[in-house]
Amino acid sequence: MPEAEFELEEIQARIKRGNKMRTTALLVFLALICLARWGWGLPLPNRIIILIIFWIGVSSVYGLLVGGQTSVKMIRMIYSRYFLLEMLILTFLLYFLGLGGWMGAIFYIFPIIYANSILGRKEGRLITLVAILYYLLPVLLDYYQVLSHRRIFATFDLGLYRNTPFVPVSSLIVIWVFVFAGYTSSVFSDMLRKSNRELLGRTRELERVQEELLRKERLAAMGEMAAGLAHEIRNPLAVMKNSLHLLGEAVSNKEKARRHLDLMDTQLDEASYIVRELLDFTREIKPEFSSASVNDLARASLRNRRPPRRVKVVKDLSRNLPEIKVDATQIRQAFQNLISNAIQAIPKEGKVSIRTYLEQKHLNIAVSDTGEGISRENLDKIFQPLFTTKSKGIGLGLTVTKRLVEANGGRIEVNSKEGEGTTFYLRFPVAGEDE
User: Does 148 fall in a domain?
Assistant: First the structure.
């Protein structure tokens, strides 16, 4: 799972759990208010009940809005607006209930912690600041008797502490508690997010290793089977090939029979190629190093793999290139595999280019085609055994090529664009130079 999707699911899950807890708490609170008014006969105003029901409705609406979002940034923006509205509702509710001072401050702690844990530090600081303002406004207005003659904030009556420094000091303490609660909750939330990301990374790595182990087990089993199968099939194919040759000489003057024999010969060549791929894949690669010219290897590969007329071959072989230490037979086979792939990638007319050049103490061979190209999602899979997008073949050619190149101290790279073509690069250290 990508990190963005993981973060989105994580914040949606947190909000969903928070909404359930908030809704449950509000419903219990509403039940207690109803019991206090109609059961115990306390003179509580109807606006308290209306405000609680409004709070539950707002929470549900915002929960639905967040659930339909696919962007973490949008979710945080929506929920930051919700927290501002929620604390305004909380302030009026505390005013109607007559809960001020320390008792009222306690109720602000929960949305501060929740907001900082979900929204992060930036939005969490805003919520903390608004909570401080909502809490201090009625307390300070009553303390300085700005609106005392109207008794708007009479429920925050300071009593004996009205003309003492207790209120400013206690307000500073409340501010410190709010800031501390917001900061610590955001820090712990960041630590939790970081640990979740690390856990996600480790989970991905474990999944990748597990898939790799399963793939290697399947390949090992397939390799054992393929080795035995290839040896069993190779001999009958050789006999059939010789028999076709003798039959061709016997019926050389009969055109129709000759055509069918040629077709059978072509199909046998393809079957032999598949068997050879299986044998190359299962065989342990042991290079016999010697000095070789990349230009000579490229020319020999082209002689062994002649392209059809629809494909034009362009050679750009640099002169006076130093030699490389490789197994000439194995690298020639790697060249032939790449040239065959380039030709097969061109559905109609096109061009295959072979270029050799020296760059940063490495000899480079580029095999390019003007074919259909490789899609981005397949580009990381082309060297995997048994992966192929062709109608023919079993997907071992590039796997064998990569093994041959790497066994000879080189590396293979690919660059492709759909609709324009593909280029494979073989890079070998110059003989006598460290890689």
Answer: yes
